[in-house]
Structures are given as C-alpha cells and as structure tokens.
Design goal:
The chain is mainly alpha-helical and 785 residues long. 67% of the residues lie in helices and 4% in strands. The chain contains 42 helices and six strands. The chain has a six-stranded mixed sheet, covered by helices on one side. A hairpin with a 2-residue loop joins strand 1 (653-658) and strand 2. Helix 7 (110-123) runs parallel beside helix 9, helix 33 (550-562) packs antiparallel against helix 34 (566-574) and helix 39 (675-691) crosses helix 41. The protein is elongated. The chain starts with 10 loop residues before the first helix and ends in a 6-residue tail after the last strand.
Amino acid sequence: MICRAVGKRDRNFFLTLINTAVTHSHLRQTHAQVILNGLKSDLATITKLIQKLSDIGSISDATLICSNFPNPDLFLYNVIIRAHSRNNHHSNSLSIYRQLRQDTTLKPDSFTYAFVISAALKLGCNKLGSSLHGHAVVGGAGLDVFVGSAIVDMYLNFGNLNYAHQVFDKMPEPDTVLCNTMISGSVKNGCFHESLIIFKHMILRGTRFDSTTFAAVLTAAAELQELKVGIAIEGLAIKLGFHSHVHVLTGFISLYAKCGDVSKARYLFEQIERADIIAYNAMISGFSCNQQMVYAVDLFNEVMVLNHRVNSSTIVGLIPVFYPFGHLILTSTIHSFGLKSNLISKTSVATALITVYSRLNEIDSARKLFDETPDKSLAAWNAMISGYAQNGVTDKAITLFQQMQAFKIAPNPTTITSILSACAQLGALSLGKRVHDLAKKENFESNVYVSTALIDMYAKCGSIKDARQVFDNVTQKNEVTWNTMISGYGLHGLAREALNIFNKMVDLEVPVTGVTFVSVLYACSHAGLVIEGEEIFHRMVQDHGFKPLPEHYACMVDIYGRSGELQKALTFINNMPIDPGPATWGALLSACKTHKNTDVARLASNKLFELDPENVGYHVLLSNIHTADRNYHEAASVRQVVKNQNLVKTPGCTLIEINKIPHVFTSGQRSHNQTEAIYAKLETLMGKMKEAGFQTDTVTALHDVEDEEKELMVNVHSEKLAIAFGILNTETGSEIRIMKNLRVCVDCHNFTKFVSKVTERVIVMRDANRFHHFEDGQCSCGDYW
C-alpha cells in the first residue's frame, strides 16, 4: 500500500471550499483543515469563514473564531458587527463597535456606522441612534449616502420625520436607495404628500428609478386618492419598462381601487398571468374599500381553493375597516378564521379587527382582543386609544396612554393625535399640556396632524390664545388646520376673529370645505352676526359652488333664531329645497326658549317628536318653554310623555381639574369629601351676591312648586358646586376652569357672572354649546348663548 502525501492547500483552495459549504459541520471541518494548513492567522481566509458561519446562523462559532484572531482589521470588525445584527444579536454588534473605538486604533468607516445605526434601530434605541448619527458626522461619514440611508431609515422608523428630512436634504447627491428609503418611510408615517414631493425631485434631478421606487410612490398616490398623479406615474412606468413588474402592477391595482375605479383595478388584476398572493391581497382590499364585500369574500374563497398561502395582509384586506357598518357578523367570522389559522397572532390583523370593533361601538370586544394580543405593536396601542377616544370613553383612553408610557413604548404622531382628542373631549388642559411637551420632545410638533390636534385641544380646553399661538407656528397648514382654528374661535364666541381667519384662508387659496362653512356660520350664530352669516351662506353657494347640506341650513336657522327673527327662520325652513331634519327644527326650538315663543315651539317640537322620538332633550326643552311661560299644566304633560315612553334625560355634571386631578360634580351631590365646606362656601357666596343685586332665576326649575323651593333646587346645580369647590382649593384671584356636559341654565350663567365680580376671578366655562369667559360680572357671550 502506497501512502501519498498531500501537499499543503493554499488560501484560494479554502476560499473556494468555504464558498461552497452549506452546513455547519462542513464549515467546522474546513476550519480544522485551515488550522492544519497553517492559515489560522490568514486574514482573508478567516474573514470569509466568519462571514459564512454567520450566514448560516452559526454566530457563536463565528464570534469565537473572531475573538481568537490576533489582529483583526476594520473589514473583519465590520463583518462581525453586521453578522451579529443579522442574527438579531444587536446588543453584541454595539458592544463590538465600542470595543473597536476604545481598544484599537482603527477608525470606523461608512459601513461600520451604517451597520451599528441599523442595530440601534432594531433595538429601538432612539437616543443611542442619535448619538451614533453624531459619531458618523464627527467621523466624516455624515454625508455618505450609504450611511445616510441607514440614518434616514432609523429616524423614519422612530417617527422623527423632521430629522429624517434634515439628513436627506443635506445629502449632495441622494441615490436611488436613499430616495426609496425616504419615500417608503414617509408613506409608513402617513406623510404621503412628502413622498410625492421626493419622487418629483427624483425626476427633476434625473435620479435613476427602480421597481421599488414605483411601488412605494404608488402607495402614496393611492392613499391620497390622487388619480391624476397616479396616471402620470403609470405613463412614466410604461416608458421606463417597469409597468409589467408584478409588484408595480399590484401598486396600480391598489391605486385604481382606492380611487374608486374598481373595474380598472380588476382589469389590471386579470392581466397578471399568475397572480401571486400580494396581487390577490391588493384586489381583495380594493373590493373591501369600495364596499364590495361580496366580491372581496368571493376572491378570498378563490385564494383558498387555489391553495395560495393566506397571510396577514390577506386578512387585513378582507376586514371591512373602511366601511364596517352592517358587517359585524362578517368581522366576527374573519376573527374566528384568524384564531383558527393563528393569523390573529399577527399584530396587523389584531389591529385591523380592533379598529373595526371600535368603529362598530363594540368597544368591549375591541379591548378583549387588545388584551389577548401578546406582542402589541404601536399601531395596536393607537387603535385601542383611538377607539376609546372616538367612542367618548376618554378616561380609559387616557389610562391606556399612561400604561403605554409606563411600558416605555415610544409614541408616534398618531398616538399624540388620539390622546389630544381625548384631552379635548374631557377638557383636561393639564394633561393636554403634558402631551404637548411630549410632542415637542419627540419632534412631532411640526406634523400637521399633531399641530391641528393641539389647536383643537387648546380651543376645547378654554385656552384660545394658546390655540392661536400653535396655529401661527404651523408652517404647512392644511384645510383641517384652518377649519379647526375657525371652529375654535366660534366655540369662544369670537366671530370676528373666525371671519378674519376664513377670509385669510380664501385669500391664500386654501381649499375650503363644507366643514369650513359650518364652522364660520356657527361662529356667526353665536355672536348675533346675521348679515355676515347671510353673506357667508351666499358666498358658499354662489362663489364656491357648494350645495348646502342639512347642517348648513341648521346654522342659518340658528342665526335667525338666536337674533329673535323666528318668523324669518320659519320662512327659511319652508323654502328649503330639502326636508328639514332634527338639527334644523332643534335650532328653531332652542330659539323659541330664548325668545319665549310657545306657538312656534309647538310646531317645531311636533316635527322633532316625529323625526327623533327617542331624543329626550327636545321634550325637556319644550317643558322648559312652558315652565318659563308659567304654563305648568303643559309642562307637566310633556314630562308625563317622557315618563310614559321611558325616556331618560342625560344627567347634568360638571368637571373641574385641581392639581391635575379631575373632580366631577352632579346636581345636589353630597358625596364629596369636602361637601360641608362646599355648601358653606356656596352659602357665603350667595349672601355676598345678593348684596350685589343677584336674584335667583327660578324659571328653569322644571316642577310646579313654590318659588322658595325652586330657589333651593337651582342653588345646587353641578356648576355651582364645582365653582365653590374651585374657590376653596385654588389661590385667591386665580382663574377657574369648569366643563359642563349640558347647556348652562340662565340662573347658573347669572350666578357665575356675579361670582366673577365678588371674588375678582376669571371663570372659564365650557358647556354643551360653547365657551363662556366670565370676568368682573360680564360674560364673553354677551348673554347670547
């Protein structure tokens, strides 16, 4: 037997062997041969081995070999940093980076910075990512497009759009990858206009496009329902040869579907020879968002028959998020399918179902699913917080937001917008200010949706000056921002300011909407501006071509009614081209109470009882009108109807916030721990006020009883208790803010005016209609509410 000695293998042999290896055992044997052949210190061979080990997931072996290598170069450091990050050992990547900086004389390059910034993103470390951005700038790699893409991607994923834009804008020549990152990241953050602007700049600069560019920008056009823009993009895609790419074609399916052209979307879908699950998902979603749920379900069944692998996007597309009403059974069925297929564990599916349940007012089902979702995404938290806010369950929305903060979950603009909505509903100014501070800290203040929500919050919490300050600081206002400011001024009875904003909006050619005119007309009605209101209504129809909706007609009736022109209001109603609804007749009935016209009140109430028989408010209003007219028999008859029909009046309550703690009072309440002090203070105030000329107005008492008894009844209304409590628990001379859930009665309005005079305090009250600013015995509403 002849034994032949095999000569030593060289580097090229082992590099080839490593490249072809596919198993862990093969690589371990190769490593052994590398050592036997004296190449254990050969940098190129060991680097390639470490790289291959990490590719197949053997990160522990890769780390061990690297740690025993005597003098690793920067390339090897970059390989092992990237290897740990790709194997979800992001903390190890950052540790090796620190070792590189502290224990060697090597200087990180653009690859190093890009890899560690991506690791910081995966760890969710916003501050660390910002620090690494600083390292890259100091290290001279701040303007490198490879690093820039990683930095922009990080900031976009953290919701810091402002920082992402700053980095992107400083890049001298952004490449395709960087532009794609910016476009897709802006889309994920709901900044669709920004995505289109970046795409436009790519065209102007002559930056090369790829299929990813078109797929990303089509999503933005679809979400904005910009069909003309989408058609222009389609022409460019055809010209450059990208239109036939399946995922680009899928983008066009979504575009046409979301723009309402389902037939075109379906035609494009049928052009795909072998539609993949992504194309099916787009078409299913297209049917769903166009209220064609039968077709959506049929196509879903086709997917099942063809044995396509249904994924979370399939289910999300099928869930009727856009038009959920009437689809509770379908939603529950999809929920059951999600449980059976385990797709409910995907947070996107759970989030979509939470959203639909919330919109269907099935808030308990939404919360149950939220609690059962193990890995809650930020979108899931947002959906549940928003669901509570939209259903008026503001206390639970705030509690959930506080839990989210306790879990150290970073909010995004959607979170801030939802919680600001809850603060606005509740009148929680102190919490709203804290959320504003958080928005500043997270650099969300420049987001138009956040800034608009801040304006709304401040206006509805009584701080109209703060609302205007935010409005003035918004550089990119949309029509909703302008409408919100107009509406805020209307709430505070500042009609002239509202008209000024409206006129400026028109001058700047900001698109006006139906909501714009409702807000302006509302402001006019609460300030008695009849001529101005008529002019606005005329301009809406003649200059802007709007067909008035029921709410516009109701505003005009309110304008006439509040000014005492009841006959003119009635004539306006009779000449309306559409049938007047509850809002229109309700405005007239409310005016009848103010101007004590029982004849017109009977006509209006009869119409209301036909149109909205279960609304107890109209019965209460009519009863009050009869009581004010001392027609106690008729008042009692109306109250008997309420009793016979088992209608329930919403109980009045008033909220006041002291030291960031909300206190809610109801009429005649005696359960508060300061009850004795509150009633004693109320008695003291009544004594001082009577000396100043105050007389209790008893006409609002609903019962046919003696005047002395009526006086006792109205003296314990909830707003009076809240004001007395506020005086007891705040510094002398400080402002008091209260929120009433119903319209303030005449007596409580007069009471508050006198309190502001005898205590020398400003009192801000929000009732169901508007804000009242009381100071020195006067109210900002001019006794016109």
